[in-house]
Amino acid sequence: MAVRLKHPEAKLLRHRAVTRIHDLILRGTYPPGTHLTETELAGQLGISRGPIREAIQELVRQGLVVTIPNRGAFVIQWSVEDVIEVFSVRSVLEGLAAQTAVRRLPTDRLVPPLERTIDEMRDAARSDQLMKLVDLEMAFHQTLAGSSGNKRLVRMHDDLSAQIRMLIATAEVRLRLYDDLAEIPELHVPTLDALRSGDAEAAKREAEEHVRRAGERLIERMLAGSFR
Question: Which segments of the chain does DSSP mark as H helices, in order?
Fold first, then answer.
């Protein structure tokens, strides 16, 4: 007779499975196009198939995994069109977040958390901690989105964040977007300076431009290399 897990335990196992699979995708252990089977994942991760099945469903919802009828689940293979769509939406959200945050919060509340994150990014770059640097970069943008106070914007930003994090991390591992990781923190300084100035329109422009340039660099490397 099968033993049914109590709800809190089942939720914990599902979360653990999502986190482990997500991490393995980002680190390139499961590269784009990898077939994800419940049996193999359960064996590799030491988690039963039920939570694995639910984890795959969650990763599909996040846009990191796709399901193909009669074939199964696969790590998403990004196309240039996918990147254009994701970064176009992200640019609008980041610009609106910056504009709204400047109008909503005084500089002494808005800027210091972002300054600290950039400093932590610099430390991670100096010690060549790529995944930590990616996490901190995402934290910078999530903090800015949260500072807008716009709940719907934050929800949309969160929905995109998993895809953005995967794109950035996978691209760094497979394509090395930047010759020197120390470049990455400095790319956020113009946005920070605009936020510090208190000019909402300038903050909007800089945030949008930052995302636009990042998307263009990724597309350039995708066309020149192998990302699929």
Answer: 7-26, 38-45, 49-62, 80-104, 107-126, 130-147, 151-175, 183-186, 189-197, 200-224
Q: pTM for the whole thing?
A: 0.79
Residues 6 or more apart whose Cβ sits within 8 Å of residue 123: none
Whether residues 128 and 220 share a domain: the answer is: yes
Q: Is residue 206 part of a domain?
A: yes
Show the domain range for 138.
80-224
Q: How far apart are CA 159 and CA 157, in angstroms?
A: 5
pLDDT in tens, 60-72: 988 889 999 989 9
Within this chain, do residues 132 and 60 fall inside the same structural domain, yes or no?
no
Share of the chain above pLDDT 70, in %: 93
Q: Tell the residue number behind the tokens 């901690």, with chain if given.
A: 129
